[in-house]
Amino acid sequence: MLSLYMSFFFFFFSIMLFNLGILFLLKKFIYLMEWNLFSLNSVDFYYIFLFDWMSMVFMSFVLLISSMVMLYSYDYMKEDLFFNRFIYLVFLFVFSMLLMILSPNLLSILLGWDGLGLISYCLVAYYQNMKSYNASMLTVLMNRLGDSGLMMSLGMLYYMGSWNLMLYSKVDCLIILMFILAAFTKSAQIPFSSWLPAAMAAPTPVSSLVHSSTLVTAGVYLLIRYNHMLMSLSYVSKYMFILSVLTMFMSGLGANWENDLKKIIALSTLSQLGLMMSILFLGFCNLAFFHLLTHAMFKALLFMCAGVIIHSMKNFQDIRYMGGMVKLMPYTMVCFNISNMALMGLPFLAGFYSKDLILEEVMFMGEGLYIFLLFFMSVGLTVSYSLRLFFYSLFSEIKMISTFSLSDHNFCMNMSMIIMVFMSIVSGKFLLFYLSFNIDFIILPYYLKSMVLFFMMLGSVMGAMIFYFKFSVSLKLIYLKDFFNKMWFLFNIFYYLIYLGMTLSMKYTILNDKIWNESILFKNFLEKMFFFIRKIDFFYINSFKLLLFIYFYLLFFMFFFV
């Protein structure tokens, strides 16, 4: 019952915060609250809360999705022995995200930011097997790399006089680069993309929450908040834009080769994060925020439907076993394909309104032919793997040995999914109408306007070909297949870097602690000291004998030589 109470609590506050966000937008209200934690050596440590329309609306979406995840977990996790512990972890995870959203001060941002990283480690390792442990270790190490960037910028801002970033119109280039490093690791952009598919070892409700509106969107939200500083470095933004487009392209290729259902959805999240980052580095932070909100709705629904499918298939995640499910699980398949179509950007669904505007702005900016083609090929790949899932769920034959377990008669799961289906349909138009983003009037020639449709049709044909035709991969192309399927070997590269770092640290420990400190400094020093002590002790004990020896030696010398 704890999850039901939490669900009601989150849902109530979600509605309240969204209404407050609309009111703050219309009245242009901004409230800033400062809480002086303590003072140390003439430095005041403030925790600052910023209440404006953006933080209110984003918090309402986070709480709405968290509410549906709590309701969904009541059925999905009911057989779990540690269900209450799971609910407490999810609550702390959401609370850390809310702290990060409300904080304009870097010191207070770090509290929520570190909370997200720590609790994500606990949630990914929740099932306590070797796969979960490895995935959680990769996740937390990659995120700690970004945390180090925030900590370094914290130290640099200390010398500028304040940690409140709202006071600065322009900061040092190195601080902005540290912010980008933190955002890239949290939002899994190239070259830090390998942890996102690995985090699929977490329970499906956690994946629904993490990949829609919390952990992976924290980096995007951080750059949206401080986009005015980011745009002061135009040459850096161009390179970051290229990396974001490469992330889209890499994840789109990988999703078309992948057969694991949760990993396909994780790679689609990576692709959409690349889309948000790319439009953000072009300077359209409102469009990035718009797509962040609409994407959260249909991606949470997509993971919820995937959880029902995996639950019914007795933990099979291979999409090649998904045949004939439309006859046995019609409600789940309808919800699944609505979210899939929203992901493709089908007209009048949530993803269409934000995605179409982003594509037109990219065409309008004119960033070069090769980047232009790579960007639109990535959009076509999104359509391709979405249609591949569509075909496997609707037109494939039944391949399960037993279909007895295939059912979608779970009230709490169905209730959470129907609310998310409603939001996946109406949230795009609703947000566009009520939030009234400042969108330029875009004038494009006909051939550019039809470019989006052309690449979507190309992606549709590619998805149908992958489904209907079984391509045999020759031995010459097997390495190319592995290259695409394993995210350009980012897993291997980062596992090798982790191994190299651990090996070097072990060798440094042996060299520093056991050779220098122990053998050369302390052990050698003690040996020399004991040697001199023994010499001194020898002279002290035998001092009278030595004096007699010296006396007789001098007498002998004087008698014979003087």
TrEMBL record:
UniProt keywords, alphabetically: Electron transport, Membrane, Mitochondrion, Mitochondrion inner membrane, NAD, Respiratory chain, Translocase, Transmembrane, Transmembrane helix, Transport, Ubiquinone
GO CC annotation terms, alphabetical: mitochondrial inner membrane
Single GO molecular function: NADH dehydrogenase (ubiquinone) activity
Domain NADH dehydrogenase subunit 5 C-terminal: 385-561
Reactions this protein catalyses: a ubiquinone + NADH + 5 H(+)(in) = a ubiquinol + NAD(+) + 4 H(+)(out)
Enzyme class: translocase
EC number of this enzyme: 7.1.1.2
Location of the NADH:quinone oxidoreductase/Mrp antiporter transmembrane domain: 103-377
Principal subcellular localization: mitochondrion
Regions crossing the membrane: 7-26, 46-74, 86-103, 109-127, 139-159, 165-185, 206-224, 236-257, 264-290, 296-316, 328-349, 369-391, 411-434, 446-469, 489-510, 538-561
Keyword Chloroplast: no
UniProt GO BP: ATP synthesis coupled electron transport; electron transport coupled proton transport
Protein name in UniProt: NADH-ubiquinone oxidoreductase chain 5
Naturally occurring in which organism (per UniProt): Stenocephus fraxini
